[in-house]
Amino acid sequence: MASDSATIPTTINPDEAAHFGKLAADWWDPKGSSAMLHRLNPARLGFIRAAANAHWQLDNRSFTPLAGKTALDVGCGAGLLCEPLARLGARVTGLDAAPENIAAARAHAAQSGLTIDYRAGSVENLGSERFDLVTSMEVIEHVTDPAAFIAGLAAALADDGLLILSTPNRTALSRIGLITVAEGLGQIPRGTHDWDKFLTPDELTALVEAAGLRMTDVRGLSFSPAKGFVVGDDMKLNYLMTAVRG
Fold first, then answer.
1. Would the pLDDT of 6 be above 50?
2. How far is CA 159 from CA 9, 72, 129, 155, in A?
3. What percent of the chain has pLDDT over 70?
4. Does 14-245 carry CATH code 3.30.9.10?
5. Which residues pair with 118 in a beta bridge?
6. pLDDT (tens digit, 9 = 90+) per residue, 229-246?
7. What is the pLDDT of residue 22?
8. Beta strands 131-137; 70-74: pairing state
9. Which residue would you say has higher pLDDT here, 186 or 165?
10. Four-CA torsion 120, 124, 125, 126, nearest 10 degrees
11. Which residues are bridge partners to 208 per DSSP?
């Protein structure tokens, strides 16, 4: 880190970091405690690639369209998104509040033959570092100060950069689907979500604009019994958002 974390305010919630740190050991098990994230990942990655292709006019036929780009994934867990971003050619930095997750991420990257810069800490501690692509997926609902967190993400974004966020919407469906059903049936570890901390698209857009960015797209992330998680117009459960400077 470029700065001393002891002297800079942080948006990390220690209780949340401890909760997710306990899940580190089986983060990469597609049938373990992070099974839902494994199921989300293909849809999220497809959205990220399409958004990056459109933003930078990349070659959508390339296996490594992000070659020459730097990417930062904030709240990276054990690297479920960092690894595919690295395979797409990006020079990836993964940042997470739980040191246990970073240890698991480093071990898995080494086994996979991938070079990823994993760090334990907060986005506020990046100092002057800037990245072309900044992602933070299912994280903002776990921080202490969403406005300060978005400001930190914005500060880490290069001038021609692309910010991509995903988070649950605060609706009746998300309360039932993510907490009553998913946590109740053990598909997601109990205590993972606090519905009151979910943000609506309008609320997140306001935070993004307050940080000096411009929202460029928002799409729903819904569940289809036939197809699994899909990106579309239905934002009642979850959604993805892209933003750029100005």
1. no
2. 24, 14, 12, 10
3. 93
4. no
5. 94
6. 899 999 998 999 999 997
7. 74
8. parallel
9. 165
10. 100
11. none
Summarised one tens digit per residue, pLDDT across range 176-223 is 877 766 666 666 777 677 778 889 999 999 999 999 999 999 999 888
CA atoms within 13 A on the CB side of 28: 16
Measured CA to CA, the distance from residue 120 to residue 187 in angstroms comes to 26
What span, in angstroms and rounded, lies between the C-alpha atoms of 92 and 133? 9
* Residue ranges of domains in the chain: 14-245
Lowest mean per-residue pLDDT among 3-7, 12-16, 101-105, 150-154? 3-7
Q: What is the 3-state secondary structure (H, E, C) of the chain?
A: CCCCCCCCCCCCCHHHHHHHHCCHHHCCCCCCCCHHHHHHHHHHHHHHHHHHHHHHCCCCCCCCCCCCCEEEEECCCCCCCHHHHHHCCCEEEEEECCHHHHHHHHHHHHHHCCCCEEEECCHHHCCCCCEEEEEEECCHHHCCCHHHHHHHHHHCEEEEEEEEEEEECCCHHHHHHHHHHHHCCCCCCCCCCCHHHCCCHHHHHHHHHHCCEEEEEEEEEEEECCCEEEEECCCCCEEEEEEEEC
Which of 5-14, 42-51, 108-117 is predicted with the least confidence, judged by mean pLDDT? 5-14
Q: Are 198 and 174 in contact (CB under 8 A)?
A: yes
| Pair of tokens at residue 137 | 């997926």
Q: Which residues contact 51 (CB under 8 A, 6 or more apart)?
A: 162, 164, 217, 242
